[in-house]
Amino acid sequence: MDKADWLLCPVCSNKTRIKLRQDTTLLNFPLFCPKCKQEILVNVRQLNTSIIKESKQRRRVDKL
After folding, report:
1. Residue 42 lies inside a defined structural domain of this protein
2. What residue numbers bound the domain in which 10 lies?
3. Which of 5, 31, 56, 62 fits a 20 to 30 Å CA distance from 13?
C-alpha cells in the first residue's frame, strides 16, 4: 500500500484538510491553512512541498 500523509502548512506546521499519497502531484495548488488563516501557493511531488507564493489573508473586523 502507498504511504499517505497529511499535508502540513509550511507557515505554522499544522495539519491542513488535505491528505496526500506517495503518487500525488499538485502543481500551483492554493493551500489554505485553517489555523493561521493564510493561503499559500504550493507544488507537491512525492510528498515534498515547495512554496511558490505566500499571501496573507486579512481578517474581517466587524464594526459595531
Report:
1. yes
2. 4-55
3. 62
Q: Give per-residue pLDDT as tens, 20-55.
A: 999 999 999 999 999 999 999 999 999 899 999 876
Q: Does 23 map to a domain?
A: yes
Residue 21 near residue 1, CB atoms below 8 Å = no
pTM, full prediction:
0.74
Is 49 a member of any domain? yes
Number of domains in the chain: 1
Distance, in Å, from the CA atom of 46 to the CA atom of 56, rounded to the nearest integer, reads 27
Place of cell 512554496: 51
Distance, in Å, from the CA atom of 11 to the CA atom of 60, rounded to the nearest integer, reads: 21
